[in-house]
Write the structure tokens for this entry.
Amino acid sequence: MGGRWCYLATWRDTYSRRVIGWHLDQHRPTELVSTALEQALTLRQPAPGLLIHADRGSQYTSAACRTRIEKAQALASYSRPGNPYDNAQAEAG
């Protein structure tokens, strides 16, 4: 992207460990994360009750992401403040 820093948002299936939604951009606004989430939900079309876990970053806890999670009839789960071990799947790569 023109030799500039970029941000990558990913959503990964914990069972298969595959990335099922991603988006790359030069900025990290809510749209970066919500676009990746939309891609993941469209690809998988999960049954109601899916657990979607993320850290407490403002992009992940935004109204846009919460609304999309609710629309999918999924459940949002967030890491405890200051505890990266709750999000070990994402932190470990």
